[in-house]
């Protein structure tokens, strides 16, 4: 059902753009036929990208396919926004056709010879003028937006600095620093340099704890293992920790092989469990739960296992990939939840849609008494484009 719905949305989107960019800007003929077949090819490219980029042999489809997806999205946005101005402009461009003026002829005089003039070119119709103007504006807007988003997504993540006060935090733990990163999305569009840059930036923060909050990969260890190798160099005082995101369950062999691979790289996975972070003679509970998507594979989140039988006088920081998991965190007395998943919307105004499914899109908020910090993530999924939501690595400092 999900596949059918997505396929239907893609087909409708391509038909709408064909209507606005081809039918409304050309007359019947070879040009229209050529452009129509071009749109058919782009729809096929997108379908092949979704189906084929999960295997290494078809990774070459990722760049053209996902860039067209980004252009498709922003062309839709610009055309929809321009619908009302287009309709208003159309109402003002109605030019009435004037009848030719009669020529006076004297009785008995021969009729004047009509002047011989070259035929004037047919004026552009109102439909063509509006169609071409609208298409030009939408096309320029979409290309400019995607170009800007491309440089944002492929550039250095923004370093965000956040200080969070926890009411129960032992004063001796005040100043404990977490480097928080999520949604790295190692995949067909990222190289080893993507991971090396993230590791270099994390190490520059000199954090006490590194928290990798899910969606590290988009593929198997066989395909992407070399891209993850720089994680071996992550530096922190008390260790680096990882929890699964939904994309780990989309990997061809599931999350188990990545859990093992990360262990060999020195990154500990918190699988519905918790550890004690001892700092200056005080203790903080750091817990992690599996992603919600693990439930279909009997590997879902277990908050009782991760948070049960603990000393409730201690402050607890929970790593949970999706912000929506905060409802369970609140029932178990968690003080702070660190999440990712949303990408901050990645492609504005898509952030408005994300807000319908998650309680926090990005940044810090308090939900049911639990403080939740949601990072925008350091990578991207699908199009290598970020608009209004630059990639992020967060230095989070706890305060008593």
TrEMBL record:
Alphabetic keyword roster: Hydrolase, Membrane, Metal-binding, Transmembrane, Transmembrane helix
Keyword Membrane annotated: yes
Cleavable signal peptide: none
Transmembrane feature ranges: 6-22, 34-53, 65-84
SUPFAM superfamilies (UniProt xref): Metallo-dependent phosphatases
Residue span, Calcineurin-like phosphoesterase domain: 176-344
Name this polypeptide is given: Metallophosphoesterase
The species this protein was found in: Nonomuraea marmarensis
Lineage: Bacteria, Bacillati, Actinomycetota, Actinomycetes, Streptosporangiales
